[in-house]
Design goal:
Elements: H1 5-15, H2 29-132, H3 138-141, H4 146-162, H5 165-196, H6 199-209, H7 215-226, H8 236-254, H9 258-283, H10 290-311, H11 320-336, H12 339-361, H13 373-385, H14 403-423, H15 429-458, H16 472-498, H17 503-544, H18 564-583, H19 587-608, H20 615-633, H21 638-651, H22 661-665, H23 675-682, H24 691-697
Helix pairs in contact: 4-5, 5-6, 5-7, 8-9, 8-10, 9-10, 9-11, 10-11, 12-14, 12-15, 14-15, 14-16, 15-16, 15-17, 16-17, 16-18, 17-18, 17-19, 18-20, 19-21, 20-21
């Protein structure tokens, strides 16, 4: 532990009797001083003793350092001598090695021709046996020496190729016959070893056959036997993957070129097994069932490419990607060439069937929406005048829009996009995707949504119809929902296929055009529907509002808070506001409600202008407008509420005292209004003809 002087002195004083207050003893400074003096003397003695010991150790260390330095010098001298001896030995070894290499070259120069001569002598001996027609050598008669015999016959076969045919035709045929026999024996031996599972023997025989012409036949036999019993399950693709996995582990132990053998096995699987399987699956439905044909084609192509991805893990040579792509193309090329035509044909017939089945379920015979000059002229007139051209059609509340139909059409198109992505050539993908999108636009947007809009427009009654049922808002609601689904599929499934191609702008323009076309019809239908709503309000007011409501016979006996016409109009308006909110979303709700609110205000304003008002009648009118204003609050549109606030202020002119007219007219809500408007309301008072009122207002 580190030495702390204060703590040391404290401990010393604590141990000294009389050095503290321990045990009740009195403090004795003399005794403590004496103890300190004695302890200091002890420490001095101890310091001297330690100092002597340190000096002794220093002297000893200096002595040993001198001895060590002397020893290191001696070792350095010895090392220099040893290094000189090592250099001399190295030079001598180099000299001897040079002599040995020279001698080895001389021996090799002598031995190589000798070995060649011996080899040539042996070959001549074996060649003579073929000349004599009798093979006596043990190497040819002993079946266990088939490897040596194969090496000899292979060399003799090469020599025989150089000999003239006219003189050595017989011996050449014998050598060729023996060559063929040995080749067959080796292949047979390889086959037997493969069946027994003897990898070492297979490797040995394959190495011998490598220099024979029949080596490729050996590979073929190996590939054929590998596949025996490998395809017993229903899933040929999984069987193929397992087979290749197993062979990949074995082929490197047997052949010197395993990547070539494995590639040949895979080629054989693709061109024989898979091609046959694919053909059986597709040809069955190619002409009879387009839906099943497309499903099978997509499934088979996907499983084949998945198998190809698994095979990419193996060593198949330098460009295995191209190799596998060519194999896949060779299987499917005849089916992929006309894929998009089959897809479009199926999609067209399937979509038409879905729509027809829906209309049949409604017992509806689809009307023909005309085209050409007359129809275009009608359309332009209708857009500019908003007049219903042609007889109104009673749809009995049917919108002729079905989410089930839409979901079915979108599901079919989604599957078509997925197949298109997988089966189309990358260069044709944007073009094919655009064709599928065009089919969706034709059947979903034109044949279904646009037809429903046209039918809905034709079903909107004229604005002067009584008790008209307004179903067009239901059409708007469903069309809005459907278009959200259409837009989602456009973004989720079409955009990834065309995002980096020129077809993107074409698709966006087509989508924009169809949206604008439908928005025009929706706007037109909503406008005419609002006109009908206002027409219904007019009928209610005409039927329920009486002239005596605002000019009662008994001014002192009016018991109602507001008129019956006001109650019914407000009830009708609230229902329509709720319906508009349920039928639309976003800013469209506020836009349509503002338009309805403005027209509602105009109707009430013009309606109030038709009557004369007594004092009590004016109070009833104010009560009615207050109720209308309460109804206007449901719109939640500032402009509409402001209009009814102003109208309420105008109605005050019907009851205000003549002396206060100018003050009321200059109030905050009426100050900015045209004087003619104010005058027109004052004129509605029954006492307007009195000279006093006319004078005050002038």
């Amino acid at each position: 532990e580190p030495f702390v002087a204060d703590e040391y002195i404290e401990r010393l004083a604590w141990r000294t009797p009389g050095g503290g207050s321990r045990g009740g003893e009195a403090f004795d400074p003399k005794r403590l001083l004496e103890e300190f003096v004695n302890h200091i003397q002890e420490l001095q003695v101890m310091d001297e003793r330690i100092q002597r010991k340190v000096e002794k150790l220093e002297q000893q260390c200096q002595k040993e350092a001198k001895e060590f330095a002397k020893k290191v010098q001696e070792l350095q001298k010895s090392n220099q001598v040893a290094f000189q001896h090592f250099q001399e030995l190295d030079e001598h070894i180099s000299y001897v090695a040079t002599k040995v290499c020279h001698l080895g070259d001389q021996l090799e120069g002598v031995n190589t021709p000798r070995q060649r001569a011996v080899e040539a002598q042996k070959l001549m001996k074996y060649f003579n046996e073929f000349l004599d027609g009798e093979l006596k050598s043990d190497v040819f008669t002993n079946s266990e020496k088939i490897k040596e015999a194969a090496d000899i016959i292979q060399k003799l076969h090469l020599i025989a190729q150089e000999l003239p045919f006219d003189r050595f035709s017989e011996v050449k045929s014998k050598i060729a016959s023996k060559y063929h026999d040995l080749e067959c024996q080796l292949i047979q031996e390889f086959t037997s070893a493969q069946r027994r599972g003897e990898i070492s023997r297979m490797r040995e025989v394959a190495a011998v056959l490598l220099h024979f012409k029949g080596y490729s036949h050996c590979v073929d036999v190996y590939i054929k036997q590998c596949q025996e019993g490998a395809f017993l399950r229903n899933d040929v693709f999984e069987d193929a993957a397992i087979l290749c996995q197993r062979v990949n582990k074995q082929v490197g132990e047997v052949f010197s070129n395993p990547e070539t053998v494995l590639a040949k096995l895979i080629q054989n699987i693709f061109e024989v097994k898979l091609q046959s399987y694919v053909k059986d699956q597709l040809e069955e439905h190619r002409k009879s069932d387009a839906e099943q044909y497309l499903k099978n084609l997509y499934d088979l192509y996907t499983r084949t490419t998945n198998l190809s991805s698994k095979l990419m893990e193996f060593n198949l040579g330098t460009d295995k990607q191209t190799f596998l792509s060519k194999l896949i193309k060779s299987i499917f090329i005849s089916y992929l060439e006309n894929y998009i035509e089959v897809e479009i044909g199926y999609l067209k017939s399937r979509s038409a069937m879905i729509l027809q089945r829906y209309y049949d379920s409604k017992n509806h015979q689809k009307r023909s929406i005309g085209t050409g000059g007359i129809q275009d002229l009608k359309e332009r007139i209708r857009q500019r005048t908003n007049l219903p051209l042609g007889p109104s059609i009673d749809t009995h509340g049917e919108t002729f829009l079905s989410q089930e139909v839409v979901v079915n059409l979108l599901q079919e198109t989604k599957q078509a996009f997925e197949r298109c992505h997988r089966l189309s050539d990358p260069s044709d993908l944007p073009k094919n995707a655009f064709r599928i999108f065009s089919m969706l636009v034709d059947f979903l947007c034109t044949e279904h949504i646009d037809y429903a809009l046209e039918t809905g427009l034709a079903g909107i009654p004229s604005s002067d119809s009584k008790n008209a049922n307004l179903y067009f808002l239901d059409v708007v609601h469903q069309a809005n929902t459907i278009f959200h689904l259409f837009d989602k599929q456009f973004n989720d499934h079409l955009m990834p296929l065309i995002s980096s191609s020129p077809k993107l702008s074409e698709c966006l323009q087509k989508k924009k055009d169809i949206i604008e076309q439908m928005e025009v019809k929706l706007d037109m239908g909503i406008d005419r529907t609002l006109n009908c709503m206002i027409g219904q309000m007019k009928h209610i007011l005409a039927a329920e509002q009486k002239k005596t409501d605002f000019k009662p016979e008994d001014e002192n006996n009016v018991l109602i808070q507001y008129t019956n016409a006001c109650v019914k109009v407000c009830g009708y308006v609230r229902k329509q506001v709720e319906k508009i909110r349920n039928s639309m979303d976003g800013k469209n709700v506020d836009t349509v409600l503002m338009e309805l609110g403005v027209r509602f205000h105009r109707l009430i304003y013009e309606h109030l202008q038709q009557y004369s008002y007594s004092c009590m009648g004016g109070m009833l009118a104010i009560c009615d407008v207050a109720e209308y204003r309460k109804c206007a609050k449901d719109f939640k549109i500032a402009l509409v509420l402001h209009l009814f606030d102003t109208l309420h202020a105008l109605c005050n002119l019907l009851v205000v005292a003549p002396d206060n007219l100018k003050q009321v007219c200059s109030g905050e809500q009426l100050a900015n209004l045209d004087k003619n408007i104010l005058h027109s309301f004052v004129q509605l008072r029954v006492d307007y003809r009195s000279a006093r009122l006319a004078r005050h207002f002038s």
